[in-house]
């Protein structure tokens, strides 16, 4: 029986209007700017405005979804007689997925007749979003809650996350590189190329000189790893640098005949840690 709801959180970076079209409700991560008491949801402030504030030196501090927020999101669905498949943000980067599991366990005791499942994508931004998209497609094909969960579990270790950033100061702030490395890298124009490992952690793989070289390096990785170069599902996320996202999409089309399914903006909760100019490529590969 197909009487279940796929539920997610806003770290998937899929726009709210598209989540509505997919029939996927969500709970949102939040952030505050240093020195400002106001708390924003991931989608509340227009993205260009958020990135402009970052460029001017504002620092955003992010917060996971807590268990109470998930309880409030899950319970009306259960009261409506439907089961829940929660597809969540990498447990290697946030406590959000764990909070969803806590809420699910509490509600299993209250609604023992309902099936509540939680699956960790070990992914972020458009990579997490791509796995969510695959589950939604399976549901639209008539897939059961078990089959939709299996789609994520079967593909999460094949979901390649390759990305670069434009300014190393944000990685330095998050402790991923040293202050000296950030200073030298920015001075000499080095751009890191990173990926997400099987534990859902961000790993610095190598660096190249210049923005164009970093885009080409990601395209090279696509050619090296993609399972279906011409016909596979491809997502791109960008931190307020749409022109670069379009350039990368054009490179993939020219080299491999690939068509990008979705180009989305890296939302503030993830963008706070990677900064303006972040560019990420997501696809299914032989391995991560």
Question: Which properties best describe this structure?
Answer:
6-stranded mixed sheet, alpha/beta, 4-stranded parallel sheet, 288 residues
Quick structural overview:
The chain has helices at 16-22, 47-55, 67-79, 96-110, 125-140, 145-155, 169-173, 179-188, 211-225, 242-256, 268-274; strands at 4-9, 26-27, 30-33, 40-41, 60-63, 83-88, 116-120, 159-164, 190-196, 202-209, 235-238, 262-265, 279-284.
Describe this structure in words.
By secondary structure, this protein is of the alpha/beta class. Helix content is 43%, strand content 22%. The protein is built from eleven helices and 13 strands. The chain has helices spanning 16-22, 47-55, 67-79, 96-110, 125-140, 145-155, 169-173, 179-188, 211-225, 242-256, 268-274; strands spanning 4-9, 26-27, 30-33, 40-41, 60-63, 83-88, 116-120, 159-164, 190-196, 202-209, 235-238, 262-265, 279-284. The strands form three sheets. The protein has a six-stranded mixed β-sheet with strand order 10-9-8-13-11-12, sandwiched between helices. It has a four-stranded parallel β-sheet with strand order 2-1-6-7, with helices on both faces. Helix 3 crosses helix 4 (96-110), helix 5 runs antiparallel to helix 6 (145-155) and helix 9 (211-225) crosses helix 10. The longest helix is centred in the middle third of the chain and has 16 residues, at 125-140. The two termini are 33 Å apart.
């Amino acid at each position: 029986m197909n009487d279940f709801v796929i539920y997610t959180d806003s770290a998937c970076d899929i726009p709210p209007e598209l989540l509505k079209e997919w029939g996927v409700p969500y709970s949102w991560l939040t952030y505050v700017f240093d020195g400002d008491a106001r708390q924003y949801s991931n989608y509340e402030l227009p993205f260009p405005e958020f990135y402009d504030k970052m460029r001017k030196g504002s620092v955003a501090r992010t917060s996971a979804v807590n268990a109470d927020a998930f309880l409030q999101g899950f319970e009306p669905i259960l009261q409506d007689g439907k089961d829940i498949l929660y597809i969540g943000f990498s447990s290697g980067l946030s406590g959000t997925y764990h909070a969803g599991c806590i809420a699910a366990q509490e509600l299993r005791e209250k609604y023992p007749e309902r099936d509540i499942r939680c699956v960790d994508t070990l992914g972020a931004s458009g990579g997490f979003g791509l796995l969510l998209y695959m589950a939604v497609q399976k549901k639209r094909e008539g897939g059961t809650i078990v089959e939709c969960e299996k789609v994520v579990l079967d593909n999460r270790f094949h979901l390649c996350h390759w990305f670069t950033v434009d300014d190393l100061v944000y990685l330095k702030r998050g402790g991923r590189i040293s202050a000296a490395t950030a200073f030298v890298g920015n001075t000499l124009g080095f751009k890191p190329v990173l990926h997400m490992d099987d534990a859902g952690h961000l790993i610095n793989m190598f660096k190249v000189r210049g923005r164009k070289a970093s885009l080409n390096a990601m395209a090279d990785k696509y050619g090296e790893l993609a399972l279906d170069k011409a016909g596979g599902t491809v997502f791109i996320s960008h931190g307020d640098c749409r022109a670069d996202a379009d350039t990368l999409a054009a490179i993939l089309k020219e080299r491999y005949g690939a068509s990008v399914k979705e180009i989305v903006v890296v939302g503030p909760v993830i963008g706070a840690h990677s900064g303006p100019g972040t560019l990420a490529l997501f696809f299914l590969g032989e391995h991560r």
